[in-house]
Amino acid sequence: MGLILCQWAKYLGATVVGTVSSEQKAEQAKKAGAEHVVVHSEGDFVKKILEVTNGEGCPVVYESIGKDTFRRSMDCLQPMGMLAAYGHASGAPDPVDVVELGMKGSLFLTRPAIMHYMAKREDLISSANDLFNVIEKGVLKSNVNHTYPLSEVGKAHRAIENRKTTGATVLIP
Ligand SMILES: NC(=O)c1ccc[n+]([C@@H]2O[C@H](COP(=O)([O-])OP(=O)(O)OC[C@H]3O[C@@H](n4cnc5c(N)ncnc54)[C@H](OP(=O)(O)O)[C@@H]3O)[C@@H](O)[C@H]2O)c1
After folding, report:
1. Pocket of ligand 1, candidates 37, 65, 165: which has the most ligand atoms within 8 Å of its Cβ, to mutate?
2. In angstroms, how far is the first alpha carbon of the chain from the final one?
């Protein structure tokens, strides 16, 4: 998701700031179009993100880590910014106090899930067309970085759980 977001958001004209856990992943995020990349294991990512946005913060944060990063992701937003919390790899985030959304700058918070956005057939077709369109234009490159025989599905799961993968992991039947 991170690599797709970098490529597509850059194409749409956004300045993309990525957060990753290692230098190796930082290189991949840069190649995918992130203008700034923060290695979050190397210190306070909120401070670094405020630095690269001249103290303004981001208009939108796509947050998929959950518990470990949710509140800090909220602190990276500018007033009236949007936190799109689309996953929680480190566990469900703590509950949010609605008053805090106001105090931190009239923030918007959403928890989008693909099944709602694709519930109607026409929405599925329109989104699929958008996706294939950017793939055909060469904007989005598929990153199948790992393949496993189906019989080794356990290994594939362990690699994903241990954050050893990048891009897509494909099982070969
Ligand atoms: N809402 C929806 O409809 C929807 C649809 C598809 C996927 N998702 C969610 O989107 C997220 C990304 O999916 P994906 O396919 O891109 O997964 P992925 O390839 O496994 O990437 C997840 C990344 O999150 C980071 N991460 C994992 N655990 C972490 C932790 N405890 N602390 C900090 N960072 C951690 C890792 O990057 P680093 O090692 O660099 O930190 C990892 O590469 C998942 O949470 C998934 O459930 C949501």
Report:
1. 65
2. 24
